[in-house]
Amino acid sequence: MATVRDVAQRAGVAPSTVSRYLNGQLRLTPLIAERIGEAIATLQYVPHAVARNLATGESRTIGLIVPGVTNPFFAFVAEEVEALASAHGYSLLLCNTKGLAEREGAYVDLLSRGGIVDGFIYVGMHPRNARLGAAIQRGCPIIVVDERIDGIPPVSTVFVDNYGGAFAATRHLLELGHRRIALSGGREDLMTTRERHAGYRAALEVAGLDVDPALAIFASYSEEAGHDAFVRFQALPDPPTAIFATADAIALGLYAAAAEHGLRIPDDLSVVGFDDIPVARRLGPPLTTVRQPLHLIGQAACDLLLRRLQERDDTPHYMVLPVDLIVRHSASAPSATKVLHMDREQIQLR
Amino acid sequence: MATVRDVAQRAGVAPSTVSRYLNGQLRLTPLIAERIGEAIATLQYVPHAVARNLATGESRTIGLIVPGVTNPFFAFVAEEVEALASAHGYSLLLCNTKGLAEREGAYVDLLSRGGIVDGFIYVGMHPRNARLGAAIQRGCPIIVVDERIDGIPPVSTVFVDNYGGAFAATRHLLELGHRRIALSGGREDLMTTRERHAGYRAALEVAGLDVDPALAIFASYSEEAGHDAFVRFQALPDPPTAIFATADAIALGLYAAAAEHGLRIPDDLSVVGFDDIPVARRLGPPLTTVRQPLHLIGQAACDLLLRRLQERDDTPHYMVLPVDLIVRHSASAPSATKVLHMDREQIQLR
DNA sequence: GTGAAAGCGCTAACAA
DNA sequence: TTGTTAGCGCTTTCAC
User: Fold this and answer.
1) What is the DSSP string of A44-83?
2) Listed residue (A217, A173, A272, A221) closest to A72, CA to CA
3) Closest Cα in chain A to B86
4) Which residue among A50, A222, B217, B245 has its CA within the 20 to 30 Å range from the CA of A99?
5) pLDDT at B210 > cutoff 70
């Protein structure tokens, strides 16, 4: 591969002149410029990105670490970040961790080790992450999305109103007339899970209901989790008439399990999700869910990062983004026949 | 940020000794090793990735350029590549181009400019890409997936049996008894589109049927494309009884449009897709489609690239991966009532 | 306007 | 085993 020296030699100038040519400070004699242009073309020269980064101390590139692009939620956030970054002349390098702590650590290191990106956005799934803490400590420009990482210095973070969303979802179910409302949640140590759980409990309490701990199951943001939760709820002596799934992926599992067990949604069981991934509106029935402001999340995070890079202001900023309850057709009033049915079952059980 | 020199100074050794410590060639006096370790810890030192890449000439990182991770197809390929790469000790940097030629070019440049990745996999959507050609010409290790790029030197490529898949899909519809079979395709200049179209035509011809050009519409691999195609097909004097969608995304649009127009799938219209994205089996009715070997595509591409990097063998290799027709419930025999209905309509039209 | 020289932070060859 | 030196490919003062 050709280098600046080769080009310089061939054009009969100094490397620094070639560098100036490349960087557009065109106070060059036309003749020289032309000779350089020719040399570049015949040598098929392209500047070495890493050498340039090392010399200039910047890369005009940012990073984004996500648990998994197969989850539409993260995929959309990624595209949003990419759009904004490229609009500002930055390239975006995406890192997929599959939610594995070890991979997350590896990518945090890679990106924070310097030179390859100027800063990055971290959308993680681990409430603890020592290497992330260390990177922040070292002063790397990092923005965290929707998670509170323990044991790290304060860092700019984009939050989503998980509490409010869960509250609205649960209240919706309450207003429909449900009294036995279950929660099928993600990993209990995640901040998002805890906040959504808190919003759920608060709505119940405001309505004057007791919260039954047997009605809350925590596993993961996955279909299997929803499937399992359904089975366990049905095994209860007094099964819930509605389930709040703290992620649409979980709701998908609920749908599948309900179909297998011959229960109809919403007639026999009401379901409300969280996220509003694109499939949500295509399900049968379309899923009532709490919509996360996907575009805002990506934009806000990118904006925070770019601002930090350009203004060299490293005081942490926090944002809380609003959510919306999207009412579709997966939740309705508990039917009389179902109540009847339940009563009869209970009688039989005695 | 601390550098090797700082660490060396603090530990009272030479920079090269620190470097050896870092790179695991631990033939160091325990005392010295300990001093270095201490210095690293107190200084919070981490080696500068880019400086190291520049010095060693490698990054142990590979790149992957895709049109869009919001398309599950690409998202799964990406995760597969990531898994294999990390199993071999490589990191994976993903670039999302949104299918924009300009962004594709920018990322091709970024990755081929040297130092940031050792090589990359290109899953593009443009039959022409000058910058990709230039990068290949320069000898960058690049693997192309499922597209033939015009005007570039031969390059290792992973193909999928688009022709065979389309042939099987169409034959399936033929065997069910359909005679008016339409094709709703992606961009006409894409090799995947052309091959799937060719497979479709071949199946028709083998069955002794004429291929009606009015029955093939080309637009893009998107829902809107399917929606539009449906409308245009229905406007035909003699609408098709079955549609082969050359991507599941297109089939999604067909489903939506059919629902809007009160047509039931498969009773009133049979549909076969291509890709087998995860939602396919969750649709109502589950989609009959041609499954692409997602895991194999990612693995094969990654394997080709890693082999190229390790063995320094730059003769192009080609692979063609098989596909499977997954029969579910979106295609059935054209119903008698529908035939009747059609006949009546035709009579009215005369 | 252009060239010479120094240096970004690291590793690797060679000496010691 | 450890230190010295040179250099990866580029940019950027500072003279000319």
Assistant:
1) T----HHHHHHHHS--SEEEEEES-TTSHHHHHHHHHHHH
2) A221
3) A103
4) A50
5) yes
